[in-house]
Amino acid sequence: MPVYSLIIINKAGGLVYQREFQPGLRKLSTNDYLVLAGTFHGVHAITRSITPKIPNQNAVSVTSSTTQTPTPTTTAAAAAAASPSSTSVLSPSSTSIPTPTPTPTPLSTTSTTTPALPPSTSTPSNATYTYPIPNLPLSGLETLESDKFTLTCFQTLTGTKFLLFTDPQMANIEGIMKTVYELYADYVMKNPFYQLEMPVRCEAFERGVGGFLRARG
Amino acid sequence: MAVYSFYIFDRHAECVYKRRWLPRPASIAGKSRPTSDTPTVANGLATMPSTRTTDDDAKLIFGTVFSLRNMVRKLGGEDDNFVTYRTSQYRLHYYETPTNIKFVMLTDTKSPSMRVALQQIYINLYVEYVVKNPLSPAEHPGGLGVDNELFEQSLEQFVTRVLS
Fold first, then answer.
1. Domain annotation covers residue A81
2. ipTM of the complex
3. B9 CB-contact burial (10 Å; exposed 0-12 / middle 13-18 / buried 19+)
4. pLDDT at B84 over 90
5. Which helix (H) or strand (E) holds A49?
6. Could you list the residue range(s) of the whole structural domain that residue A206 is in?
7. What's the rounded mean pLDDT across residues B2-12?
8. Where is the protein situated, by its record's location annotation (chain B) (predicted)?
9. CB-CB neighbors (< 8 A) of A44 in chain B
10. HSE-up of B119 (CA within 13 Å, CB side)?
């Protein structure tokens, strides 16, 4: 059960490392690998953004709490927010009346002052939808299966992507990925001559990753 | 197991049918486009503006499966097929007929392989009710799409009874 090849893509979508360990996939030209890296980088971002959104049942109560802030701009925005939802019991006239009930003003002010929510939050507090697994952050493509190979993608916190092409029957790809990442951290990132975001040319990394991945062939 | 959505694309990249089982609200208010000063990581981690319609979603999904299919063909050879991919939140299943009609289904991450299910939708529902229907157009230029009550009913039944 071999590991066919390893590709490392930097955070800008450029190919920084490509090596084949076992024959099995077709050989591409260097230019094709560069195109593939860029394409995958784009597709990875799109797969993240087409995550299904599930309507949030609590959305109405959240929007009604924001309507009670007295500033006119927020009431207009909140009225606009409340009007499309047909289940809302609030009429536009009731939003302009300042109600004396204690309101969670810190929450509403932060939601109005910040221009947009941080992109990584999986549960937007004022949104009318939620994601299938709300407590898990959104991610792009993680594994792809075809008839002949499995592609596993691991994205580091800094945005570097590791692509491992393996046999479909292969088990424990996460463990292999972790070791490859450790080798990268040890031999590439700790190499004082390595320039960030540039192609990886480190002999020690070649030896380490070659010895480790060829042994599984 | 939950099915989120289902799409059919014809050989001209036209979305001829789409159906969602957990509909998105018609408009998402109170959300603004991410401005330039929003902290974004440079690797595309920033979310798209959420005011996207279902049509745009279908186009994005087509672009994704088209790119991935071409990538798989390039690496695995012409007889290789793209089957499925998974993210942390959902799973996308893909089936392409020899006539290049593409069936795409989005489900939750725990679902088993839906290749057989998509094949059954093609053979038992699409061919029976759409292809064999003499009134149904062979091509869908400009996008009326599959507008067939029998097909939609039986698809609904298939997804709600067989798959969940």
1. yes
2. 0.79
3. buried
4. yes
5. helix A30-49
6. 3-54+64-216
7. 92
8. Endoplasmic reticulum; Golgi apparatus, cis-Golgi network
9. 44
10. 6
